[in-house]
Structures are given as C-alpha cells and as structure tokens.
Model the fold of this input.
Amino acid sequence: MRYLGAVPILVLLFALTPGPNLLANLTSSGPDVRAADAIVVLSAGLNPDGSLNRVSMQRTIHGLLFYRMGLAPLLVFSGSARLQTASEAAVRAQLARDLGVPGPAILTDSAARTTYEEAVVFKEVLRARGVARILLVTDPQHMTRASAVFRKAGFLVYPAPTVGDAGSAPEDRLWLLHRVTRELAATIYYRAMGYL
Amino acid sequence: MESLFPTVVVLLTSVGGYLVSTRWLRLSVSALLRGVDKTLECLGVCTVFLLVNVIVGVVVTVVTRTLSGQFLSLYLATGLVFLPLSFLQGLAFWCWRRASA
Done:
C-alpha cells in the first residue's frame, strides 16, 4: 500500500516540472490549417445561464476566425442544450450571425452528445452536401481522438486546434495532466468500443 | 520564478516544521521515518479510493445510459472533485483502521 501511496507524491513532483507540458505536446495533434469544404467546431458545453462556457467560446471564436480567413464556405457548429436553454449550437450560430456570418453559411446540430455521435451525425449531414475535407476545431488534447473518429467516418481531416494550456504554474500543469490522462482513458474506451 | 513559488513555500514550511518538531516538541528523527511510512500507507489507501471512485463512476454512467436512456457524460466520472473527496475517504478509513487496531 505504501508503494501505491508514492504515486500521488510522484504525480505532484511531476507537476512541478515541465513534464506535463511535454506529455501534452507528445499526445496532442499539431495544426494543419488549410482550405477545406467546411469548418467543423466541436461542442464544449454551456454555462448554467445558457451562455457559452470558456472552452466553447474559445472554439467558436477559432472557427469564426478561420471562416473570416476564407478557409471554407461552411461553418458547422455542434452542441446540445441544457435544460430550459437554447442549444450550444444555436447560441454559437447566433454569435456567428451577429459577427457577420451569413445564415446560409452556418449549419448546426444539437443532437450529438459525444465526439463519436458528432462524427456519426456529421457523416450523414455533411457528406450529403458533398463535404469531404473538414477543418476540425477543438482543443489540442481532444484533437487526436476527435481527428481519428472523424477520419474513420470518412472525412479528410485538417486539425485546427485552439491554443493549448501552456501554463508553467504547478496548478496549470496539474490541470493539464488531468486532461491528458482523461483523454488517454477516453481513447482507450473509444478503441474498446470500436469507434477508432 | 512563479512556477517555483509553491515549491519554495512548501520547502520553507517543511524545514520550519522539522525544526519546531525536533527542538520544541522533542520529536525523534527516527520516528519521522516511521511517520513517512504511515503517510505513504495512508496515501495508498486514498489512491485506492480514487481508483474505485473512478471505476464506479464509469460503471454508473454506462449502466444509466443503457438502462434509462438518459445521457450522462463519462467526463463526470473523471472530475477533479474526486481527488479531495477520495483523500477524505482514504484518510477516514485509514484512521478508522488505526483506531480499531
């Protein structure tokens, strides 16, 4: 039991080094930003008041910037609803319209609840529109699994990760380590389920 | 510098605690090693509780999705809140075991 007790101490000591940042870089996907048929912005959730949470806002803005750069004619937002509020996809779409993106250039889906479901839904919806190449927007740690799922759905995926957590404070590194570990567990689950 | 700040503070308080313990409270240095051993034991129990909490969380999530059709995110089973809660569980269990011995 005492050997197991050394694990949290080693984890804390690891968080005091640049190790988590290196691990995050090793496990995340680098960007490959280029022209595509559509920009797909994956969901990240809403705040209790129905507004976009920080991660969702970051991804949305990232997607909007790529649209403004003319990298794709179609901007696709994913995101389901919390109780009593509009869906995350709808909130994102409204923000895009408020920032000048024309309505016909925006496509939304609020049915998908997981990364896998997003790939399944968009496989049906986007392939029917002739979309084969997508610029995929999500976090760096999430990008590896998300890209793999969307590639399995038949898309040519160009990863466009948002800015990663590059903090050097121990609490930032602990948070980063948590996210890397969580993504590793999610990847193992997805492989076991045959989603990858 | 900022990344080293917590380390420096903890080192200072650890050295201070050691000096207070050995000089004022007259605790023995050999007992410190036994204390470290017990600390590792307690942390091991806490780690077990953390692993069990995560596993049970995943099972509850999958069972809920399958039986009720209600969606629960698997991310809930890996929330950071499980760290302090598992620590409290492990500490309570370890103290209970010590008190029963």
Summary: The two ends of chain B are 46 Å apart (CA to CA). Residues 76 and 83 of chain B are 13 Å apart (CA to CA). Chain B has a mean pLDDT of 89. The interface with chain A takes residues 2-3, 6-7, 37, 39-48, 71, 73-75, 78, 80 of chain B (CB under 8 Å).
